[in-house]
């Protein structure tokens, strides 16, 4: 049974969410202050944290910042509906997903399951799971969920890790937004949802450019993103690679 920590001072909302999530098979613990919630989250034992932005004791963004310094536990932020600033700040601070208030409890449960699925080790679409992905100076261990760039360990959030692994598996190609949301976020792409842009921006900031100075991520406007191969990349460094000058877009046909 997944254990969830809900940090929110809205008593009515917390009771409603707890009741519904319990029926859906989650074990829920509630903290009504940011400081006490942070202490419980750091103590561990939770599979996911639901974190409100406005909290007494310690604000939600500060809770997230301190938590990310000690734990990679998945975090789902609760934001005010239509508040893009809070949503972007939360994602930039390391949140794995967000849900605007007020929300349908069914959507909350669905988002939680999607976040937890992303934290499971992922493999290829066919054949046995691969334990490692190596592209250029990046080495990703799927079993330990760790990443090294030129031997240096790089800290990623759970969603950043899964997003990067999806890009590396299709290095040299552009992955459409619809596929990214389906396979990585675990939900459909909704009109106006730009959260992927924030996550890719975070990856750019953490990974920097290729050693040759070229950009790691390519954005095909209106289509999607991809991991661009360095100029000196050789075909024998990865299976079925494309050259750095080519851009192949993965087909969205036959989507489930």
From TrEMBL:
<dbReference type="GO" id="GO:0032993">
    <property type="term" value="C:protein-DNA complex"/>
</dbReference>
<dbReference type="GO" id="GO:0000976">
    <property type="term" value="F:transcription cis-regulatory region binding"/>
</dbReference>
<keyword id="KW-0597">Phosphoprotein</keyword>
<feature type="region of interest" description="Disordered">
    <location>
        <begin position="236"/>
        <end position="256"/>
    </location>
</feature>
<dbReference type="InterPro" id="IPR001867">
    <property type="entry name" value="OmpR/PhoB-type_DNA-bd"/>
</dbReference>
<dbReference type="InterPro" id="IPR016032">
    <property type="entry name" value="Sig_transdc_resp-reg_C-effctor"/>
</dbReference>
<dbReference type="InterPro" id="IPR011006">
    <property type="entry name" value="CheY-like_superfamily"/>
</dbReference>
<keyword id="KW-0963">Cytoplasm</keyword>
<keyword id="KW-0902">Two-component regulatory system</keyword>
<protein>
    <submittedName>
        <fullName>Two component transcriptional regulator, winged helix family</fullName>
    </submittedName>
</protein>
<dbReference type="Pfam" id="PF00072">
    <property type="entry name" value="Response_reg"/>
</dbReference>
<dbReference type="GO" id="GO:0006355">
    <property type="term" value="P:regulation of DNA-templated transcription"/>
</dbReference>
<dbReference type="InterPro" id="IPR001789">
    <property type="entry name" value="Sig_transdc_resp-reg_receiver"/>
</dbReference>
<dbReference type="InterPro" id="IPR039420">
    <property type="entry name" value="WalR-like"/>
</dbReference>
<dbReference type="InterPro" id="IPR058124">
    <property type="entry name" value="CpxR-like_REC"/>
</dbReference>
<feature type="modified residue" description="4-aspartylphosphate">
    <location>
        <position position="52"/>
    </location>
</feature>
<feature type="domain" description="Response regulatory">
    <location>
        <begin position="3"/>
        <end position="116"/>
    </location>
</feature>
<dbReference type="InterPro" id="IPR036388">
    <property type="entry name" value="WH-like_DNA-bd_sf"/>
</dbReference>
<keyword id="KW-0804">Transcription</keyword>
<dbReference type="Pfam" id="PF00486">
    <property type="entry name" value="Trans_reg_C"/>
</dbReference>
<feature type="compositionally biased region" description="Polar residues">
    <location>
        <begin position="246"/>
        <end position="256"/>
    </location>
</feature>
<keyword id="KW-0805">Transcription regulation</keyword>
<dbReference type="GO" id="GO:0000156">
    <property type="term" value="F:phosphorelay response regulator activity"/>
</dbReference>
<feature type="DNA-binding region" description="OmpR/PhoB-type">
    <location>
        <begin position="130"/>
        <end position="229"/>
    </location>
</feature>
<feature type="domain" description="OmpR/PhoB-type">
    <location>
        <begin position="130"/>
        <end position="229"/>
    </location>
</feature>
<keyword id="KW-0238">DNA-binding</keyword>
<dbReference type="GO" id="GO:0005829">
    <property type="term" value="C:cytosol"/>
</dbReference>
